[in-house]
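agent> Task received from the user: take the single chain below, predict its 3D structure, and emit structure tokens. No templates, no multimer pairing.
agent> Plan: (1) validate residues, (2) run structure prediction, (3) serialize to tokens, (4) report one or two observations.
agent> Step 1 OK, no nonstandard residues flagged.
tool_call: predict_structure(input=
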Amino acid sequence: MAAEGVEVRIGKDGTRTYRASVWSNRDRKRIRKTFAREAEAKAWRQDAAGAVRRGALRPSKPTTLRKVADEWLEGARAGIVRTRSGKTYKAASIRNYERTLRLHVLPVIGDRKAIDVRKVDVQDLVDRLVAQGLQPVTVQCDPAAPRDLRAARRPRRPRGQPDEQGQRAEGAARTRPHPHSEP
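)
tool_result: status=success, residues=183
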């Protein structure tokens, strides 16, 4: 039996997680966070309740694909967002991304919540554009672009440092001992 404001959730694989929640009267919304251990959920709930009362914790507002795309373009122009190989995007590439987003992507799905846009939605859009007679070069889709847009919403961590699930940052090399080295 979990504490008040903490819900036990059991996954398909049988793992138990604990979802803590607090209510924000100001925003008329529930704020939730999931934890692996009940003690962490209880502690977060207690801290969050105080933060909500002080006004320091508020529910996040949904971010649209348009806002994420603008942030991504801004980051690419500043050299913060880089290609898969770690190089900065060239000015012509950024202009092409901006043009494709402005003319073809954002008018159709730009006002949707970024978290709700799936790969299949992007593929459907590409299929429609090709069916409308646009040249393949116009709708060619760099597979890194949707990944980069999604990554723009994730907190950054240093390369090689695992996240909470033990996954390494993209592009991080795994270190292995040399086969002839001493253990």
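agent> Step 4: summary for the user.
Helices lie at 38-54, 65-78, 91-109, 119-131, 136-139, 144-151.
agent> Done.
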